[in-house]
Design goal:
heterodimer, A: 258 residues, alpha/beta, Rossmann fold, two-stranded antiparallel sheet, 35% helix, 18% strand, B: 360 residues, 2 domains, 14 helices
Amino acid sequence: MAEFKTNPEIVKPENLVYKRTEMLTPATMHYCPGCGHGTTHRIIMEVIEEMGVAADTVGIAPVGCSVLAYDYMNIDMQEAAHGRAPALATAVKRLMPEKFVFTYQGDGDLAAIGTAETIHACNRGENITIIFVNNGIYGMTGGQMAPTTLENMKASTCPYGRDIATMGSPLKITELIAQLPGTMYVTRQAVHTPAAVRSTKKAIRKAFENQKLKKGLSFVEVVSNCNSGWKMTPRQANEWMVQNMFPYFPLGDIKVNE
Amino acid sequence: MKELRLMKGNEAFAEAAIRAGADGYFGYPITPQSEVMEYLMAQKTEERTGMVTLQAESEIAAINMVYGGACCGKRVLTSSSSPGISLKQEGISYIAGAELPCVILNCVRGGPGLGTIQPSQSDYFQSTKGGGHGDYRLIVLAPASVQEMADFASLGFDLAFKYRNPVLILADGAIGQVMEKVELQPQQPRLTMDEIKKNTPWATVGRANGRERNFVTSLDLDSLRMEKHNHDLQAKYRQIEENEMRYEALQCDDADYIFVAYGTSSRLCQKAIQLAREEGIKVGLLRPITLFPFPKKPLEDLSKRVKGMLVVELSMGQMIEDVRLSVHDKIKVEHFGRAGGMIPSPHDIVDALKKQIIGG
């Protein structure tokens, strides 16, 4: 095998074009290659770094693939029970209103087991930010049907595809919570292209800035892939997401109160 | 300065929690303890001391709000009654696993299931043996008067923070609803953010410049580390057993027989002692004040010089198992109780003593 030598020019500080934000720990992420969680983690942490609010931010991790988010996010964090993150966040924000408080949740956590906590935190207009990563499947437990699994989409607990008659329709919880007077900003984004990443980062920044206004809850859905759970390559998964997820979960702002 | 008031047990608990410098209460209505949140809301706690009072969408949400607040080093509490406490068990297990302080009041009603709204003591097993999943214990305080409902609010916070462990106050519908004279302690100030950072350096209150991040979790996928965590928890529980066992012995010195009872049952036994002694039967009362840690040693010592013990509970017999384990079957130990919200009369208790212990 040929010896690999790094070009000394590349590592010169003046040539640095991209680096890990200090708001992420050096820990190696456990996410599958191609998964959107790592990108989403990074842009949240970039927003916190750019706003200079690391000392004033408390994050709540969910149960699911991102259960170990606190291993990567270099801020104070709490690890909630499955679905309960909005309840923890409610208390943290009420007890320390000067802090920035956010939850990071997947579709099973937020839209199945945690539906009550989600709806009621939104309805009370808790002054927090919810980041909702929707990949239409339970990744951590091995690819079971999620509340957002698409019609006819296969998962380990619907091996012949999701049957609407017996399993219900994929839940558009983001549209649902946009109806609630307690939410001030509700948007659906993605992280599969550089343009989508930039758009999501802007949305997350806005959602965090909104906490200063004290006018209600901000909710950012990130439609993402799960190439392992979907049994596709990362590239196939992103293409499938564009062709199948986006028509049912269209990207863009759903509610913007100023 | 002494302040005497006539209050319901539930109200006294709520008032005492405010005065103990509580930062937040999170609850959900259920009979027979709804007065706790009603009282706090009427008191406008946010204006009075800055304490947050929030009505959650469920008992599950309420206990998870307590979890979130406890992660921040805040003095937080919740209250409920039996079916609601069952719903809270998931959260209580997480709080115990993550070693967080909080106070939980269970104003027990009869079960199982939806059961009844009348007083009962049928949640003893759930309270003292863990309750939720995993190997853990709560510190369990059993008030027998409105005064103790008030006193245990602040004692509960002290113990919870001393051991980083949830404290359960196991009352019942009668203690919650009855009105009695109560002496209230003066208002303690709520902790400042600087005090919280100093007293509870693990609290997730924002990663100040230079400090490592804090995170609170009950998860560890490394089995060896998780086993060690379990050993550490058990060591803590042994320390709690060593230091915090509390009980009251009433007329035990000359007693031939002993009633063992807590909470409302112990009040009934006080009258039963008087009735029995009028008939020449020398009986005393051992009242556990802490149900975990359980007063094993005092019971074992008593078993060396009394003839028998009657365990009186508003249940079909739960605490009796711990009494029998404490006395190693050396003397006769029997159970007498009513269930479903029924309360025996002191005469019933004396009759049971004669029939099951003396004559049996």
